[in-house]
Specification:
This protein has helices at residues 3-21, 23-56, 63-109, 114-119, 122-164, 166-169, 172-213, 215-220, 224-250, 252-279, 293-334, 395-402, 425-430, 446-450, 459-468, 472-477, 495-508, 525-538, 574-580, 583-592; strands at 356-363, 372-379, 384-388, 410-415, 418-419, 432-435, 444-445, 485-486, 513-517, 543-547, 559-564, 567-572. α3 packs parallel to α11. α18 links the parallel β9 (513-517) and β10. With 593 residues, the chain is α/β, with parallel strands linked by helices. The protein starts with a helix and ends with a helix.
Length: 593
């Protein structure tokens, strides 16, 4: 079995698992399918009987004709009603499956390590949650019904045709294998095209999400034309992939339709010949070659029902190819390895003093490139550690290791003399509160955003935190005050105000340690001074790690680490480093020259 076949089988089985979890709805759908198609299959039988009743009726007695016509009408009416209820059931079934799949996917994303999101575009992930799962939903709600209907209709039609005229069935011994072989051949060619289409659309979404988040920068530098050109390149590539998949997928239906139409022509020709032989007296009524005019009409109708689903299946097969490609992308995330579980000997944290030690720590995001080399330092409880250095030196990487978003390749990091690998990640991360350069606010009230890290906080505590962050006056000036609803990521307030709200959130947290990554970079100098005064008071008793490019913000730090090329080249207080006359003093003097 080829890899592609194994993959298709695996996807089918997994999708089937979602379907069978909703077995009451699925069983109802199967029952309605059987009843609806059985009634639909009886229609041609009564139609043919009506034709024979006309042919053999004596005089003007048409009671048998009307009886069969009424039976035929009743069958088609109830078949249509059952089909409607079937469609409703399948919509409910597909929605439940999509809900479960989307829930599982999002929950899995919450278990993945930070490294996964560092290497996968956000837009591509969103594309899998929305577009790919919607594609699966379309196939489940429409195509799955069509397949179930097709299978029953083909088998039922074959049984009826066998009872009407066995010789005429021989026609399908040639046309059906031709349809199947062509469909299989074409599907192998089309499947990779749909995978490519999904990949290209994911790349397009990722680029669009990235560019939209940087609209102000793009406009400030007048790069709209350049960005539009790059987007158009990706858009054209995605559309070409979309066109190739749809074009070659669309050729499947007409090709199979031609084969089926050919079989219909042969059925009509052979049926006419057998009818003329039967009523020309050359074929005995007991012979398998005997057929009435009603029988020919029945066979033609059943042959259409027999060939139609095969053609329909070919038409929806390219939709299945798209659904399989989408499911493959979704399952690829679901199958990702989650963040490693805590070790069996990992313990929780109760009373954190805040002593942090880096002991000869080295780390690289990939085995080929080491970012940090032999990092050694100690942060005593309640002290402030500032980390400075050029871009790419490894400052943020140290924070990533502190929070255990990544594990060190060698060496050891300890919190209160306990290796952090022996601490439960949840407890370790709750021991820190963070204020990052890139603010993050969610759609909700200002109050809800501030209490995000401590949901049991009182209004008075929230107000005190906002006052400490110098944002309380602004909040109270708003018509709805703390109940003011922020739009997604707080785009309806200024960037500096967003930063102040995230700082208030950090102030409210009772975590014993604090991480500030350029926390005051988005506020004016006057506000920065006030915030520094408030921080000096609120940071007392907390172990603080501060990443800053503006050295004026960290002059009072207890220890300043100068990181260059992944190595600590200097460390000490501001005064000590200035006296050394090394890289720090040069950097400081260049900022205040």
């Amino acid at each position: 079995m080829t890899e592609n076949k194994k993959n298709t089988k695996s996807i089918l089985l997994r999708l089937g698992g979602y379907v069978f979890k909703e077995w009451p709805l699925f069983l109802s759908a199967v029952i309605f399918t059987l009843l609806s198609n059985q009634l639909s299959l009886l229609g041609p039988k009564y139609s043919g009987a009506a034709i024979d009743a006309i042919e053999f009726s004596a005089g003007s007695d048409l009671s048998a004709v009307w009886e069969n016509v009424i039976k035929m009408a009743v069958c088609y009416i109830f078949s249509a009603l059952l089909s409607y209820f079937l469609a409703v059931i399948m919509i409910h079934l597909s929605q439940k499956i999509v809900y479960a799949m989307r829930k599982q996917l999002f929950e899995k994303l919450n278990t993945l390590p930070v490294g996964y999101f560092d290497t996968h575009p956000t837009g591509d992930i969103i594309s899998r949650i929305s577009y790919d799962i919607d594609t699966i939903n379309s196939s489940l709600s429409h195509d799955l019904v069509q397949v179930m209907t097709s299978v029953y209709t083909v088998i039922g039609s074959l049984v009826f045709m066998w009872n009407i005229s066995r010789p005429m069935i021989l026609i399908f011994a040639f046309t059906v294998p031709a349809s199947i072989l062509f469909t299989r051949y074409r599907s192998k060619k089309v499947r990779p095209l749909f995978s490519e289409r999904s990949r290209k659309l994911g790349e397009l979404n990722g680029f669009a999400e990235e560019m939209l988040s940087g609209t102000r920068t793009i406009e400030a530098y007048g790069k709209q034309g350049v960005i539009s050109g790059r987007f158009n390149e990706r858009n054209e590539s995605a559309m070409e992939a979309y066109y190739r998949a749809e074009y070659y997928g669309a050729t499947l239906g007409p090709s199979v339709n031609f084969i089926n139409n050919l079989s219909m022509s042969l059925v009509a020709m052979l049926g006419g010949i057998l009818y003329m032989l039967s009523f020309g007296g050359k074929v005995d009524e007991a012979s398998v070659f005997f057929i009435t005019l009603g029988g020919v009409a029945q066979f033609v109708q059943y042959s259409r029902k027999f060939a139609g689903p095969i053609n329909e299946f070919a038409n929806i097969l390219h939709e299945f190819q798209s659904a399989f490609s989408a499911a493959e992308r979704v399952f690829r995330i679901i199958d990702e390895e989650p963040e490693p579980a805590d070790s069996a000997k990992a313990c929780g944290l109760d009373d954190v003093e805040g002593s942090v030690e880096f002991d000869d720590v080295s780390f690289g995001y990939t085995p080929e490139k080491t970012i940090l080399h032999d990092i050694d330092f100690t942060a005593k409880p309640g002290k402030t550690i500032a980390i400075v250095g050029p871009t790419g030196a490894g400052k943020t990487t140290i924070i990533n290791l502190l929070m255990r978003f990544y594990d060190a390749d060698s060496g050891e990091i300890r919190l209160d003399s306990l290796p952090i690998k022996n601490i439960k990640r949840r407890d370790l991360r709750k021991a820190y509160t963070m204020v990052l350069q890139d603010t993050w606010l969610f759609h909700g009230t200002i109050f809800e955003n501030i209490v995000y890290g401590r949901e049991n906080a009182t209004f008075e505590e929230v107000k005190a935190a906002a006052k400490a962050a110098r944002i309380d006056s602004y909040i109270e000036s708003l018509p709805d005050g703390y109940e003011t609803v922020l739009s997604d990521d707080g785009t309806n307030i200024s960037k500096g105000q967003r930063q102040l709200i995230t700082i208030a959130r950090a102030f409210l947290s009772d975590a014993p340690m604090l991480i500030l990554d350029e926390a005051t970079s988005n506020v004016d100098s006057r506000t920065e001074i006030k915030i520094q005064e408030a921080m000096a008071e609120l940071m007392k008793g907390r172990t603080c790690f501060v990443i800053a490019h503006r050295l004026s913000t960290i002059q009072n730090a207890d220890n300043i680490l100068v990181v260059q090329h992944g190595t600590i080249t200097e460390q000490g207080t501001h005064e000590e480093l200035m006296q050394k006359g090394g890289f720090y003093s040069t950097l400081y003097n260049s900022q205040f020259a």
